[in-house]
Amino acid sequence: MRAFTYERATSPAQAAAAVAKAPGARFIAGGTNLLDLMKLEVETPPHLVDLRDLGLNKIERTSDGGLRIGALVTNTDLASHDRVRRDYGVLTRAIVAGASGQLRNKATTAGNLLQRTRCPYFYDTDQACNKRKPGSGCAAIGGYSRQLGVIGTSQHCIATYPGDMAVAMRALGANVETVDAGGATRTISLGEFHRLPGDTPHLDTVLKPGELITAVTLPRPVAGTHVYHKVRDRASYAYALVSVAAIIRRDGTGQVAIGGIAPRPWRVEAAEAALPQGAKAVTARLLADARPTKDNAFKLPLVERTLAAVLAEVKEARA
Ligand code: SF4
């Protein structure tokens, strides 16, 4: 690990300013991804700004009946919150499907959104990787790509966003609240938050340098059956090959996001109109632009089958 300097932030705007003025500086909260990346020298920030004293750890009702989740709320606290369990069940189910109990005790809401890809070449500093070192190439293209993306990818990067929590948040229609170094705030739709790689795969999100996530908001609860299905190589402590977050209403309509297949939680609102027709019709629209590799083409039928299993589970629950 390289040497770095450290400070504890005193306010969100001061934290944003501290990171903005030190090139390469990073925020640190739970550190469950960043510290691993620093030990491997995949990331070498010269300065860390610790957010733990900022008080961004509250879960509150919004004026329109939704929920505001502070950036530093831990995954454990969010998943076990009474209102989340009752009204946003897909979110609780997605969070507990991720990582391990110990990691969820430390991992935060904002950090979970910002976790970096688990592409194996990204973690191996001897390999070409445009995301880690822009312009160096992509060892995954033509390499081992079984776990990587099938849609939203580019000729420069085929990595996936690896998390579970954000897939449920995308299905729920979440927004991300931020503050920048000048104290200006803005709200970003989670659907726009993670960038597609294009020719700048080193940029994971639309955040500006120093821009700090302060909260995630959820709209009013969506009535219906909440399901999260995660297909993975091991029964626990493994990233999704494919996951489906779904809220299905009594009339068969609903909201669906897919994980494990793209650089962002993948939701195509227009595809949801086909939900009453079944998984095949939805998947055809969701994956119309898919470009799998020969190693991961199996993910296309896996999306359809996983969604079919979700719809069958909903039907059975209501029988
Ligand atoms: Fe790097 Fe992306 Fe290629 Fe993986 S897929 S090696 S993260 S550029």
Can you give a write-up of this model?
There is one protein chain. The chain has 319 residues and is α+β, with helices and mostly antiparallel strands. The protein is 27% helix and 17% strand. The chain has eleven helices and eleven strands. It has a five-stranded antiparallel sheet. Strands 1-3-2 form a three-stranded parallel sheet, with helices on one face. Strands 9-10-11 form a three-stranded antiparallel sheet, sandwiched between helices. α5 (89-96) runs antiparallel to α8 (165-172) and α10 (279-286) runs antiparallel to α11 (299-318). The longest helix has 20 residues, at 299-318. The chain starts with a strand and ends with a helix. Bound molecules: iron/sulfur cluster (SF4). Iron/sulfur cluster binds at residues 117, 119, 121-122, 129-131, 138-140, 148, 157-159, 201.
Quick rundown:
The chain has helices at about 10-20, 35-40, 75-80, 80-85, 90-95, 100-105, 110-115, 165-170, 190-195, 280-285, 300-319, and strands spanning about 5-10, 25-30, 45-50, 60, 65-70, 175-180, 185-190, 210-220, 225-230, 240-250, 255-260.
Attribute tags:
single chain; 319 residues; alpha+beta; three-stranded parallel β-sheet; 11 helices; binds iron/sulfur cluster
